[in-house]
Design brief:
- Helices cover about 40% and strands about 20% of the residues.
- The radius of gyration is 16 Å and the shape is globular.
- The chain has a single domain, classed as HUPs (Rossmann fold, 3-Layer(aba) Sandwich), CATH 3.40.50.620.
- The chain has a 6-stranded parallel β-sheet with strand order 1-4-3-2-5-6, sandwiched between helices.
- The chain contains 7 helices and 6 strands, in the order E-H-E-H-E-H-H-E-H-E-H-E-H.
- By secondary structure, the protein is α/β, with parallel strands linked by helices.
């Protein structure tokens, strides 16, 4: 089943605390250029529960976080790509720099972040744990970084005769 692109209100109607028929897992990111690290994290997150909801930063939010020229791929297209993954049940686009409001309203059973995040840096941790949920850190997949991919592309493009 392919995932759906939902508003936060639609996600709450379908996956909110009172509507659940299984464990809801939430993860988030910009997902500007997908790489194997993203794929593995999504698969690991989905394996932790019955439903995986992915929050993605809006175009404006990515621009504020990552700077001029980002994102490379528009929010609706990023959402469509993620929703096509078998492991993803729903995608929610949020405008803020962090998914704090989405997490506080949805209150997933499990919040997943990459292992490069410190426990004190995980947005939504307090809300999830206060509601009886848990935070799970997935291992970082070495060698994959959107920033590094873009750096290599720029360097390659600068030296290319094409």
């Amino acid at each position: 089943m392919d995932g759906a692109i939902l508003t936060i209100e639609e996600a709450i109607v379908q996956f909110g605390r009172g509507k659940r028929n299984g464990r809801v897992v939430f993860t988030n990111g910009c997902f500007d250029i997908l790489h194997p690290g993203h794929v593995r994290t999504l698969e690991q997150a989905r394996a932790l529960g019955d439903y995986l909801i992915v929050g993605i930063n809006s175009d404006a939010s990515v621009g504020r976080l990552k700077g001029a020229g980002r994102p490379l791929i528009a929010e609706r297209e990023r959402a469509e790509i993620l929703a096509a993954f078998e492991s993803v049940d729903a995608v929610v686009i949020f405008e803020e720099e962090t998914p704090q409001a989405v997490i506080a309203r949805l209150l997933p059973d499990i919040l997943v972040k990459g292992g490069d995040w410190g426990a004190d840096q995980i947005v939504g941790r307090a809300e999830v744990e206060a509601a009886g949920g848990q935070v799970v850190l997935t291992p970082v997949v070495a060698g994959y970084s959107t920033t590094e991919i873009l750096r290599k592309a720029r360097e390659g493009a600068a030296g290319s005769p094409c």
